[in-house]
Amino acid sequence: MAPDGQTLAPNVYDAEPIPDAARAEIDRLLTSGDLFRYTAPADAPVALLEVEFANLLGARYALAVSSCSAALFLSLKALDLPKGAKVLIPAFTFAAVPSAVVHADCAPVLVEVGQNYRVDMADFAAKLPGADAVMISHMRGHTSDMDAIMALADAAGVPVIEDAAHSLGTTWGTRNIGTIGRIGCFSFQSYKLVNAGEGGIMVTDDPELAARAIIMSGAYEQNWKKHPGLQNSFGHWQNKLPLYNLRMQNLSAAVIRPQLPLVAERVAKGLANHDYVAGRLNSTTTLHVPPALPQESRAPDSIQFNLIGDWTDAQATGFQSAAKARGVSVQVFGLSDGNARAFWNWQFLGDPPDLPQTRAMLMRACDVRLPARLTRPELDYIADALIDAATDACNQ
Asked: Which of 30, 43, 192, 244 has its CA 20 to 30 Å from the CA of residue 385?
């Protein structure tokens, strides 16, 4: 709040604070030097986190690793796909997703995404024949039609991995996102709902996938014995799989665990914030927030909206600048220099495919962070800044 009582532009880039409950455990770990997850004979913070997270999601097994990218990579390796396997991914995702596919010696196949940021089911169905796996990114927490995706994939015998980096707390009908496919992967990077700086976790109900992923994550020699319930599978796979050493260490788990009981509250606040700002933006003729699908209950910590009407690139860029001048940072995905979410910037894949629907969406789709901690005056400031910036840009 400014001295004159006016609301200042809110700082949306501070991550979720670390609960005080983590501090005592962090001090204990630092004093003991017990940072490696397999040092303790039992009840290491990482092992406790895996049990708690599996219970939170309603999954049988969880494996905590160094990042969500590591979880995606291990998921593909656990599926034992052949070299060069074709993996369908949405064309609207973060560069780490196709990178994980390439790292696993597989070939990403990009699927068109519509104006609502979700997989185009016609293009998905057309590209599914010949695919070896599907990796669905619920990008920015927008859930694609999982009923349709699973029906098609199951009929084709193709396994589905859920990239739920942005979707902890999201539900699809009665199911938690991340538990619908064979494997679900989540992120604890600072700009996610649970903040550990870095870190990830994967969940599955399949004991063979869990055992393979655990060994490859770096459970060497007899360390797999500290993961309960999979002894026969571990015994079969020991020394037959490469070790990638993607383990989470205990300090990260100590930071994450006290935040898990806060997930429901953060989800409720984040959704309320999102829907309030969405209502403000949807009252205009120039900005539009696509609605959730009927089966989807979201857990947003950001808001995405489209510039609607006959916007030129210059006007869209002007909108970014006008919002920034008001203290609100907006990225138009396709017009932000080198944006890692624009598929044509993934030069490591070679020449970009022709994806006109996704390209058109990215050229007018906007992204603004909306942390759960924001107050109503701060939300009004952001909404007013965006609406006024759109008016200025359209009048250029």
From this structure: 192
Distance CA 216, CA 41 (A): 20
Tokens of 91: 């064309």
Pick the CATH number of 262-394 from 2.40.50.100, 3.30.70.1490, 3.90.1150.10, 3.40.50.2300: 3.90.1150.10
- Reported for 274-279, long-range contacts at CB under 8 A and 24+ positions apart, including other chains, are 274/298, 274/300, 274/302, 274/303, 274/370, 276/376, 276/379, 276/383, 277/303, 277/370, 277/379, 277/382, 277/383, 278/303, 278/305
Give residue 3's pLDDT.
43
Give all strands (DSSP E) within the chain, no chain letters: 61-65, 86-90, 107-111, 133-137, 160-163, 171-172, 175-176, 183-187, 200-204, 287-288, 296-297, 302-307, 331-332, 365-369
Q: What is the pLDDT of residues 260-287, one digit of tens each?
A: 999 999 999 999 999 999 999 999 999 9
